[in-house]
Design goal:
By secondary structure, the protein is an alpha/beta fold. The protein contains 13 helices and eleven strands. The two termini are 37 Å apart.
Length: 334
């Protein structure tokens, strides 16, 4: 049985080509049906050309408007009632799709999801959770990575509960270690937000390990790390830039001499593995935790591979029933 995934065909910077090509890759490789949401007159010719007569489980759902990256989220959500985001999320609300994926405006995605799907009881603000690799070989969930620029201590408490449950239910971590991202490990370190959030997190029935620093995102010392969306987004984008720098410098070094080129040939498999593990397009997108439905938000620069993996993440999330678990946990713990 195929899982129906709605995709915002007008979200990415180079839309709709990445969405169309990514959808084709996804339906060829995964047990999914893709509903491309956007202007029918623009999408249909491009899809027909890309398919070249091949019959695949991809349909177009018409939406006459889309929200640009440079638009103010609140105003765009209010004024554009037939946007590809709103139409796609309505498909989820009406159970015509199991999940929705967008690589569009993050603020608009969160606002539209909260308006169309509604927040789970006990959740003031949904959070974007990104799963990142670590040197320990285990994943680390970082949230929030951009949905909420300004947060209150209670928001971080809710993020911790949602992230911990996501790590248990989706990543199969038996007892996730939860850390609070700060500028030092000592309890008193940090700003007003982290100082006030610390005792609240400590009081939760979670495996709270206290403050953690930026390096702990990737060394495997924590399974879940919570922070406000401003800090989380800066950390994520800095990491992406550093990863790209390391890849480019390594590639350049391996081309400089004959000896290095021979070494590059011998280490091609290892380099490909490194590139795949650190390529943002492999992550697919971040789930928006805390809403009554599944919304996955990808990077604006998403290519077709990122869209394909975003569809994969959406389908996997749909099979876990995490939202019901989050609702039950929040009711019990907060």
């Amino acid at each position: 049985m195929l899982t129906d995934i709605a995709v915002d065909a007008m979200g990415a910077d180079k839309a709709p080509n990445p969405e169309i090509c990514g959808a084709i890759q996804a339906v060829r490789e995964l047990p999914v049906r893709v509903l491309l949401v956007g202007p029918q007159d623009r999408l249909q010719p491009l899809l027909d050309t890309a398919l070249a007569g091949e019959r695949l489980p991809i349909e177009i759902v018409h939406a006459s408007e889309h929200i640009g990256m440079d638009e103010k989220a609140a105003q765009a959500v209010r004024n554009k009632k037939d946007s590809s985001m709103r139409v796609g999320l309505k498909l989820v609300r009406e159970r015509q799709a199991a999940a929705f994926l967008t690589a569009g405006n993050t603020g608009a995605a969160m606002a539209t999801a909260k308006m169309v799907l509604g927040a789970l009881p006990g959740v003031d603000r949904p959070a974007l959770a990104m799963v990142l690799p670590t040197t320990a070989g285990t994943p680390c969930v970082l949230l929030d990575v951009g949905a909420n620029v300004d947060c209150r201590p209670q928001n971080l408490v809710q993020f911790a509960v949602m992230g911990e449950l996501y790590a248990r239910a989706v990543l199969k971590v038996a007892r996730p270690r939860v850390g609070l991202l700060s500028i030092g490990e000592e309890e008193g370190k940090g700003n007003e937000l982290t100082s006030e959030a610390f005792p609240l997190l400590k009081a939760l029935p979670l495996h709270f390990i206290g403050n953690v620093e930026g390096r702990d995102i990737y060394n495997g010392n924590a399974d879940v790390i919570v922070c406000d969306g401003f800090v989380g987004n800066v950390a994520l984008k800095t990491s992406e830039g550093l990863t790209r720098l390391v890849r480019d410098m390594l590639k350049d070094s391996l081309r400089r001499t004959v000896t290095a080129q021979v070494g590059a040939l011998l280490s091609r498999k290892a380099f490909s593995t490194f590139k795949r593990k650190t390529d943002p397009s492999e992550y697919g997108g971040a789930p928006l935790l805390g809403v009554r439905g599944i919304c996955i938000v990808g990077h604006g620069s998403s290519n077709d591979r990122a869209i394909r993996n975003g569809i994969r993440v959406a389908a996997e999330f749909a099979q876990t029933g995490v939202n019901s678990l989050i609702e039950a946990e929040l009711t019990e713990r907060i």
